[in-house]
Write a structure and sequence with these properties.
ten-stranded antiparallel sheet, 239 residues, three-stranded antiparallel sheet, outer membrane lipoprotein receptor (LolB), chain A
């Protein structure tokens, strides 16, 4: 493990504490133009997000109806009733995005897949970078105003579903996350820069509670006129 990643993990609560936990539940409110472009505008209803920390598994409640939830894993996504009855499901869900462009509409299972892998990635960052199969190297820092943020580039293993294979993470002087860059492969591969704010501590783990993702230009500068995705997190509980 490189020295920067080690310092980052310590700043966010430490790998020992993380490994003692198995799950996080949090209230989320999400929005942004991406969902409107995809024909699925997001309402401001608070939802409960559940993420398993050491396997890629996530669920959001409610999803599509008050008595429904999503169930996401990389190889299967489903919408279920609370009693477990399957409303809809899709195996190998990544395949359904072949040929998609930014304007290609999503169906509810596409939305559930995106929500599942995205929130799993966000709520396990930066600790997912220490999981088996990740290749992490330090990259050139990013200058944001008067600050210089050190960067890590992660190559995700094939078994982990996420935005793109290569993703960049930038950290402030305190080694806490400030920015996360990636390409949204399931939406035509547009480049995104996500800024995070308002970090809190929950059960010994530090995590941001406000995320804003923008398209980025050829110089990796965010195009602030359009918020593609917004996520507000509250009441995070680790168990």
């Amino acid at each position: 493990m490189n020295a920067l990643l080690s310092a980052v993990l310590d700043a966010h609560g430490g790998l020992d504490r993380w490994n003692a936990l198995t799950m996080v539940r949090a209230t989320i409110v999400s929005g942004g133009d991406l969902f409107t472009i995809k024909g699925m505008p997001q309402d401001p209803t608070p939802r409960e997000m559940t993420v398993w920390l050491h396997e890629e598994h996530a669920s959001v409640l409610p999803f599509g109806a008050p008595d429904q939830r999503s169930d996401f894993r990389p190889d299967r996504v489903a919408v279920e009733k609370l009693d477990g009855h399957v409303v809809a499901e899709r195996d190998a869900p990544r395949d359904s995005f072949t040929g998609h462009e930014l304007s290609t509409p999503w169906d509810p299972l596409d939305r559930a897949y995106f929500n599942g892998y995205a929130l799993w990635t966000y709520l396990t960052t930066p600790f997912l970078l220490a999981m088996p199969g990740f290749d992490v190297t330090e990259i050139a820092p990013w200058r944001e105003g008067d600050e210089l943020w050190r960067g890590l580039r992660a190559t995700f293993p094939p078994g982990i579903a996420s935005h793109s294979t290569h993703q960049d993470f930038y950290f402030g002087f305190d080694h806490l996350l400030r920015r996360h860059d990636y390409h949204v492969d399931v939406a035509g591969g547009f480049a995104a820069a996500q800024y995070v704010h308002d970090i809190v501590e929950a059960d010994g783990i530090r995590l941001p509670t406000r995320r804003r993702a923008y398209r980025s230009d050829a110089d990796n500068r965010p195009i602030l006129e359009q918020t593609m995705v917004s996520i507000d997190v509250s009441d995070a509980r680790f168990t």
